[in-house]
Design goal:
Layout (H helix, E strand, L loop, with lengths): L1 H36 L11 H7 L1 H6 L1 H10 L15 H14 L18 H23 L13 H13 L2 E7 L3 H4 L2 H10 L4 E7 L6 H13 L4 E4 L1 H8 L22 E2 L1 H19 L2 H6 L7 E7 L5 H9 L17 E4 L4 E5 L12 H6 L11 H11 L2 H8 L18 H12 L10 H14 L13 H16 L8 H20 L2 H10 L39 H9 L1
Parallel strand pairs: 1-2, 1-5, 2-3, 3-4, 5-7
Antiparallel strand pairs: 6-7
Helix pairs in contact: 11-14, 16-18, 16-19
């Protein structure tokens, strides 16, 4: 009996050990894949396509068998090969707009393939890589079109996975945009993707840095959002953080009224924003739940989740820190600080979720514009003049001279007098005023460009974009009035001072030509300080010269005449 019992116990232990061994092997296998994917997230927007293909060759090898079939069946993109060499700049721009409108539907956010809890880790990873490579392949075909200029976009699958998780677990999606150009940072396809996940999900446009906008421009943006049924909130993370420290940075005008009823133009505070976000998220949850289940759980409130998404360096982490009331996420001026999504519990009813910043593909901008707007890192730029030219085109000449206390050269007579300054002129003037000189002895334009771009992003250089369809002349008139009130002592424009000096010199020259003293007057000004220290010169004695009484200015000539000889008197004396 004892031996049989021992054999039974040994068999049971063997079965338990075998089961535990299989569980450990499965766990180690999943952990290996997890550790493989847990490498430091790095943005792939700054590398070229060849490096991206080399880095992701292992992923492409998994899909080598199905790539030929997908390439053969995906001929829906017709690329025009027309020669555009004879087209003018305006015709080329119009053709580019037509091409962008034609292929705008192809700029989509990568979708996560369908999945369930019964799928293994390897199967889920393979499906996600395959769907992502197919998305990359479609965008690569768009880049082959000469009429389209596709901006740099995020090419790292791991960062897009962070976005998928935030969208799936969030009840309300908050898209953070910069108030100075909201449509540059807005991604309409992301709103459509949220509706594909759940038709009741809503996307709210959080217009950050609204304190950098004049009130009249903020009002026009509010009217545009209201007319197009866009859910929006004006917000300033910097002002909210200062309010936590007892400082006040925003002074709202009291006498400004709106023509549209229900137009919200105020900048929300921290408590107001939290209340509004929770109310919007609860409305989404109430619409998602069925009436039968909602009636049974009316006494219990489910915890709602609000996810923050958007471009890098638009203020997502700063907004999270201001709402939490403490520094929970890293904040820096360099885009891409947040690497993984973070979940922060505000209360028992509200949870905030911060997503890493992503660069969405678009046709609307260039690489230099993305560097100037802070989407791409400034410290990694290689062409600084093109990025500074974006700043020079958007900021008025007089504002650049006033803020940096520099004098920009005037346009040439054959150039348009209202043209913006070139990047060369702006950088050289800035380097001359600050004394930035490189080791080669030339002006350090790279250092000056980085400082100016950071000032442009931080709001030191004022600029803003108008809503679509609005005439810029309306805002220019209002800004000119407000700008004259703020400056107090307006400085002369860049062209007024040199013109005044030139007129004074011309008047002095004309008057001097009439009196014949212009040269003598300028010599006296230059030599007046040290003329009295010169030794007195001795005058040469020219008294031996004979004056000319004729006064004709010719030298006098002395005539020596011999006395006449009286030959008759001599002959008479000889005779006597």
């Amino acid at each position: 009996m004892g031996g049989k019992k021992e054999r039974t116990e040994g068999l049971g232990r063997a079965l338990i050990k075998q089961q535990n061994r299989r569980a450990i092997e499965a766990k180690e296998k999943g952990r290996a894949i997890h550790l493989q994917n847990r490498k430091i997230l790095e943005s792939y927007t700054e590398i070229n396509e060849i490096d991206a293909i080399v880095d992701k060759s292992d992923e492409a090898s998994l899909l080598l068998s199905g790539s030929a079939a997908s390439d053969a069946g995906s001929s829906d993109l017709l690329i025009s090969a027309d020669d555009a060499g004879d087209m003018t700049a305006e015709e080329r721009r119009q053709a580019q707009k037509e091409e962008e409108a034609l292929y705008a539907s192809n700029l989509k956010v990568p979708r996560r393939p369908p999945w369930n809890s019964n799928m293994s880790v390897e199967e889920l990873d393979t499906n996600e890589k395959q769907a992502f490579l197919e998305w990359r392949r479609k965008l690569a075909r768009l880049e082959e079109n000469d009429k389209l200029v596709l901006t740099p976009y995020e090419k790292n699958l791991d960062i897009w996975r962070q976005l998928w998780r935030v969208l799936e677990r969030s009840d309300l999606i908050v898209m953070v945009v910069d108030a100075r150009d909201p449509f540059f940072y807005r991604c309409p396809d992301l709103e459509e993707y949220a509706l594909e996940i759940d038709e009741h999900k809503r996307t709210l446009l959080l217009v950050n840095k609204a304190d950098l906008l004049p009130f009249n421009i903020r009002k026009k943006w509010a009217e545009y959002f209201h007319q197009h049924d866009i859910l929006y909130i004006f917000w300033s993370a910097k002002a909210a953080s200062a309010a936590l420290e007892g400082k006040t940075l925003i002074q709202e005008p009291e006498s400004q009224d709106s023509d549209l009823p229900g137009l919200d133009t105020r900048i929300y505070g921290r408590d107001e924003l939290l209340t509004r976000l929770q109310a919007e998220a609860e409305s989404v949850v109430a619409a998602t739940e069925r009436p039968s289940s909602s009636s049974s759980t009316t006494s219990e409130k489910r915890q709602v989740t609000v996810g923050f998404v958007g471009y890098p360096n638009v203020g997502k982490s700063s907004t999270i820190n201001a709402l939490v009331g403490a520094k929970r996420t890293g904040v820096t001026s360099t885009p891409g600080k947040t690497k993984h999504f973070q979940t922060l519990i505000i209360s028992d009813e509200l949870v905030l979720c911060d997503c890493p910043g992503l660069v969405f593909p678009s046709f609307s901008s260039s690489r230099h514009e993305m560097v100037a707007c802070g989407v791409l890192p400034i410290d990694r730029m290689t062409q600084h003049r093109e990025a500074v030219q974006v700043v020079a085109n958007r900021v008025a000449r007089r504002e650049l001279e006033r803020i940096y206390n520099i004098r920009l050269p005037n346009p040439k007579p054959y150039e348009p007098q209202n043209r913006p300054p070139t990047s060369y002129e702006l950088l050289r003037a800035y380097c001359a005023s600050r004394g930035h000189v490189a080791s080669s002895g030339l002006p350090d334009e790279t250092r000056a460009a980085r400082q100016m771009l950071k000032d442009y992003i931080d709001g030191k250089l004022p600029h803003f974009e108008l809503p679509p369809g609005m005439d810029s002349s309306e805002s220019e008139g209002e800004d000119s009035v407000s700008g004259s009130d703020e400056e107090g002592e307006p400085e002369p424009s860049s062209g007024s001072l040199p013109d005044r000096r030139e007129l004074e010199d011309l008047e002095e020259f004309d008057s001097g030509m009439k009196s014949g003293k212009v040269v003598k007057k300028r010599e006296n000004k230059k030599a007046g300080s040290h003329k009295q220290h010169k030794k007195p010169q001795r005058k040469k004695d020219r008294s031996w010269r004979v004056g000319n009484d004729g006064g004709d200015g010719m030298p006098a000539v002395r005539v020596f005449q011999k006395p006449a000889v009286n030959f008759a008197a001599i002959s008479a004396s000889e005779r006597g």
